[in-house]
Amino acid sequence: MKTIWVLLDDRAGNVNQCLGVAEALGLSFIRKDITYNALAKLPNFLLGASLCGLSVESRCALNAPWPDLVIAAGRRTAPIARYIKRKSQGKSKLVQIMHPGSAGAADFDLICVPAHDLHGTLQENEMTIFGAPHRVTAEKLVQASSDWADRFVTLSSPRIGLIVGGATKNRGFSAEMARDLGRAVNNMAQEKGASVLVTTSRRTGAAASSLLSEITVPSFQYKWGDEGDNPYFGILACSDLLIVTGDSVSMCSECCGTGKPVYIYAPPGMISDKHMRMVNALIENQYALPFGEETPLAQTHTLNAAADIAARIKQL
């Protein structure tokens, strides 16, 4: 029996990507939840293959017997994964989602590089992925549909699912953008005789009220912080088409993982150049269309980077 460790840190996006790959393998795995100390901010070439950036509690949880496989994501987990491989005398194979940087890159057996990161020429231990690995599967969508169908039963089909992110480190999400999006989605719903299932996120901020006030058709509305179950998976499962803002690689990838028509809202000024490259890659490879484009997808492609990575892992 192969032993698999999944390193899970404090970034939800990293966690979901790692778990998506681990689940796609279809094998049992062990979660290793880790927390950092101040040294984790140092460059990886200074940290080397070490646990220097970890809290004492996390260090104590990483000990022999060493695993056959380590799955991790992001720059800060790279020194930890390399430490495990060194202590195992090379037994542990390392799979890293997103490029960890040049320091020690040769120690990794597989580095999964998002196409929008403009990494350059691939090395033998690297593969390109579109979007991000995610945990959306047909089985989970069936379960979510069962869980939420009764709560959406009064809302007519077709149903438009609206997944709203918001401000990022370098870009804002203004009330004007929110109103424009809400008004446009409402107009689409009126034309199609559709209802709307909408959820906002923490990053939507105060703009959420501006957006929701524009939706006057029959709708289910969940604003970040509302009481009750998070409807995110229910909306993915019960919508006939999805509209998602382009500020989140994870949200766009998860929507494109449903196999349903996906439209991405990414007006000028809303998202960074890096996110725009991600959006363009999804559109060019027929996983999505730009919001406002009336031409339907010639063929709906289902995005599943986790399965692609899992297939490569099985070749190791």
- The fraction of residues in strands falls at 15-25%
Name the average pLDDT. Answer: 93
CATH superfamily of the largest domain: Isochorismatase-like
Percent helix range: 25-40%
CATH topology of the largest domain: Rossmann fold
Largest sheet: 6 strands, parallel
Order of helices and strands: EHEHHEHEEEHEHEHEHEHEHEH
> How many E strands?
12
Taking strands numbered 1, 2, ... along the chain, how are they ordered across the largest sheet? Answer: 2-1-3-4-5-6
CATH C-level class of the largest domain: Alpha Beta
Unreliable runs, pLDDT <50, ≥5 residues? none
The best one-word shape is elongated
Number of domains: 2
Rg (C-alpha, Å): 21 Å
* Distinct helical segment count: 11
| CATH architecture descriptor of the largest domain | 3-Layer(aba) Sandwich
Give the termini distance in whole angstroms. 15 Å
Quickly give the structural class.
Answer: alpha/beta
Structural account:
InterPro entries: Elm1-like. It comes from Terasakiella brassicae. With 316 residues, the protein is of the alpha/beta class. It has two domains: 4-129, Rossmann fold (3-Layer(aba) Sandwich); 138-290, Isochorismatase-like (Rossmann fold), CATH 3.40.50.850. 34% of the residues lie in helices and 17% in strands. It has a six-stranded parallel sheet, with helices on both faces. It has a six-stranded parallel sheet with strand order 9-8-7-10-11-12, sandwiched between helices. Helix 6 runs parallel beside helix 7 (207-213). The mean pLDDT is 93.
